[in-house]
Amino acid sequence: MNRMDVVELIVAARLRKGMQWAEIAAAVGASKEWVTAGCLGEMTFTAEQARVVGELFDLPAEAVTLLGVPPYRGSLPTAVPTDPLVYRFYELVSVYGTTFKELIHEEFGDGIMSAIDFRMNLVREPDPAGDRVNITMSGKFLPYRQY
User: Fold this and answer.
1) Residue 136 above 80 pLDDT?
2) Backbone angles phi, psi at 46, to 5 degrees
3) Is the Cβ–Cβ distance between 91 and 101 less than 8 Å?
4) How many Å apart are CA 120 and CA 138, to the nearest integer?
5) Which of 39, 68, 79, 117 is the most buried (most CB within 10 A)?
6) Residue 75 in this model has a pLDDT that exceeds 90
C-alpha cells in the first residue's frame, strides 16, 4: 500500500458515507483546507489525527500509519494540469505570477511567501451575478539571507 492507495480509499469512503470535508475537519480538529489536503495526500497527520481519519473512513492499520508519514508533495500527474479547475490556478499564476512577485518584493523585499508556514480559507461568496469563490491565502514572508 502507498499514499495514493490511501487517498483512493479515503475518497471512496467519503463518497460512500456522504461526508463533507468541513465535518471531517471538525472531527480531526483542524481547518477544512488543511484536512482536505492531508486526506488527499499532501500533509502529515499526527498519530491522533490519523487515528480519527482512520476511524471516520474505516481504514486498515497500514493506511492509518501512512497518514503520519511525510508525503512526497506535489501530486499533480502532469506539469501542466489538465483538470479545468486546477488548470485555472496554473493560468492564474501564469498571468498574475509576475504581479504577485513584484508586489510582494515591493512590500516585503527580496524573499518568498512560504507554502509551509501557510494558511488558506475557502468560502462561497454570494453574488447576484453568480456566486464567487473567495480564497484567502496567507503565507509567512521568508527573506533571502546573505551569507
Assistant:
1) yes
2) -70, 170
3) no
4) 6
5) 39
6) no
Told to judge if 91 belongs to the known catalytic residues of this protein, a careful annotator would answer yes
Q: What confidence tens digit (pLDDT) does each residue in 102-116 have?
A: 999 999 999 999 999
**Global pTM?**
0.85
Q: How many helices and strands in the chain, by DSSP H and E? A: 6, 2
What residue numbers bound the domain in which 19 lies? 3-67
Q: Is 16 a catalytic residue?
A: no
75 found inside a domain: no
| CATH number for the domain harbouring residue 126 | 3.30.1160.10
Beta bridge partners of 142: 112
Question: 16, 73, 88, 119: which is the annotated catalytic residue?
Answer: 88
- Note whether 53 and 102 are same-domain residues: no
56 within a domain of the structure (yes/no): yes
Give the number of domains in the chain.
Answer: 2
The active-site residue out of 75, 94, 114, 138 is 114
Q: Please check whether residues 61 and 92 belong to one and the same domain.
A: no
Choosing from 91, 94, 119, 138, which is the catalytic residue? 91
55 catalytically annotated? no
